[in-house]
């Protein structure tokens, strides 16, 4: 018996990396998981493995910046599993992202980036909240980053926006019995991080972390499952750092 038996969870950006780790962990805890990603092959591979391991999963192709695509994801979830209880807004442009400054980044790229990394969380929340309300409530986890408290160009700005979105939506969702919180990881050892972040910067960051190592996707599982669970039933609108002590906020 898992703590999420009978629950239905959508994880965006679950075709690999941290999102895959979240999806697999939810499935192990009994949830039926929708593996949602713009990368169709990645989503299908993750869902297939979850099913092979004895879990329930459905792969759905989604562009989180597109309201019609997000609504199709929600509709497919309800058609397959009967409802929606959880949403993990993990999808983001990170692997292969352009490194540039706010003053110089091409405007078209900036708009596309923000449409996914910030607006995508709102688009997906709008697509699912009515179905969550029909189930008597639910829980949403947004993926933030410690970059929100550091200089990290438009990536950091998007995460500042995710934090604000989490706080603002808690007011609109709370009376519907839907909780929303965010996880702010420190540097996590993923393929996307290895290819997108200059390793000299990563080394410098790790040297300043009290626990003296990079995180792994597995380090984030406990917080994600907790925030989706009834144990966090009186927690909403909060941002939780899982960062080895990288950021101190008073």
Assign an overall shape.
Answer: globular
Radius of gyration: 17 Å
Lateral strand order in the biggest sheet: 3-2-1-4-5-6-7
Structural class: alpha/beta
The pLDDT mean sits at: 96
State the end-to-end CA separation.
39 Å
Question: What low-confidence regions span 5 or more consecutive residues with pLDDT below 50?
Answer: none
Topology order in helix (H) and strand (E) letters: EHEHEHEHHEHEHHHE
The residue fraction in helices comes out at 40-55%
Name the beta content range.
15-25%
**Biggest sheet character:** 7 strands, parallel
Number of helices: 9
Number of strands: 7
Please, could you describe this protein's structure?
The structure is a single chain. Helices cover 46% and strands 16% of the residues. By secondary structure, the chain is of the alpha/beta class. It has a seven-stranded parallel beta sheet, with helices on both faces. Helix 6 links the parallel strand 5 and strand 6. Helix 1 crosses helix 9, helix 3 packs parallel to helix 5 and helix 4 packs parallel to helix 6. It is globular and about 45 Å long. The mean pLDDT is 96.
């Amino acid at each position: 018996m898992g703590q999420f038996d009978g629950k239905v969870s959508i994880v965006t950006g679950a075709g690999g990396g941290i999102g895959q780790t979240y999806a697999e962990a939810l499935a192990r805890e009994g949830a039926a998981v929708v593996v949602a990603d713009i990368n169709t092959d990645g989503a299908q591979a993750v869902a297939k493995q979850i099913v092979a391991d004895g879990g329930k999963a459905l792969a759905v192709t989604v562009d989180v910046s597109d309201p019609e695509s997000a609504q199709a994801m929600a509709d497919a979830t309800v058609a397959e599993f009967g409802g929606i209880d959880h949403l993990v807004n993990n999808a983001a442009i990170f692997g292969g992202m352009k490194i540039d400054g706010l003053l110089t980044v091409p405007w078209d790229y900036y708009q596309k980036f923000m449409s996914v990394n910030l607006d995508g969380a709102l688009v997906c929340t709008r697509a699912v909240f009515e179905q969550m309300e029909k189930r008597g409530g639910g829980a949403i986890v947004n993926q933030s980053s410690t970059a929100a408290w550091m200089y990290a160009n438009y990536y950091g700005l998007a995460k500042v926006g995710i934090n604000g979105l989490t706080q603002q939506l808690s007011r609109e969702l709370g009376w519907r019995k839907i909780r929303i919180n965010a996880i702010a990881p420190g540097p996590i050892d993923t393929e996307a991080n290895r290819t997108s972040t200059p390793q000299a910067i990563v080394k410098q960051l790790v040297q300043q972390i009290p626990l003296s190592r990079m995180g792994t996707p597995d380090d984030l599982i406990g917080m994600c499952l907790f925030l989706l669970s009834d144990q966090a039933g009186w927690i909403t609108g909060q941002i939780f750092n899982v960062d080895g002590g990288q950021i101190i906020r008073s």
